[in-house]
Amino acid sequence: NAGSGSDVNINTDLNVSGVVSDSAGSLRNLPQVSKSSAYTLIASDTGKHVSISSGNITVPSGVFSVGDIVTIFNNNSSTMSIVASGTTLRKAGTTGTGTCTLAVYGTASILCVSSNVFVVSGNIS
Q1: Which residues contact 2 (CB under 8 A, 6 or more apart)?
Q2: How confident is the model at residue 9 (pLDDT cuts 50, 70, 90)?
Q3: pLDDT digits (tens, 9 = 90+) for 39-55
């Protein structure tokens, strides 16, 4: 037991028989947030996947910190949009920015890379 605020250094393999987690939840699971209409992401969506069946996803300003990741699943047979609201959305691997179109039954990961700047990757255009 290292105690609060102490680092633990391990210089060999570590096998854990229980759940490995941090403040955002399990490190081997991507918990689901289910939405049936347009949705604006919130801080507690970090480390989760949002399954949305209708409407668009909005990425708001001033909510996420560098390194925060949210995954989106379009649980619908129509495309949907991932919309910037006071933020910059960069399409991974391109020079493109702005609203992204998420493919039918597609997934996208949204990574906060600096204050109100995000990189979106996955089944987007």
Answers
A1: 8
A2: confident
A3: 999 999 999 999 999 99
SS3 44: helix
User: How many angstroms separate the Cα of 81 from the Cα of each of 13, 35, 89, 95, 113?
Assistant: 43, 14, 12, 18, 20
Residue type, 22: D
Contact residues for 1 (Cβ-Cβ < 8 A; gap 6+): none
- The two structure tokens encoding residue 104: 């039918």
Q: What CA–CA distance (Å, rounded) separates 44 from 24?
A: 8
DSSP-derived 3-state class of residue 97: strand
| CB atoms near residue 16 (< 10 Å) | 8
Least confident of 26-30, 47-51, 75-79: 26-30
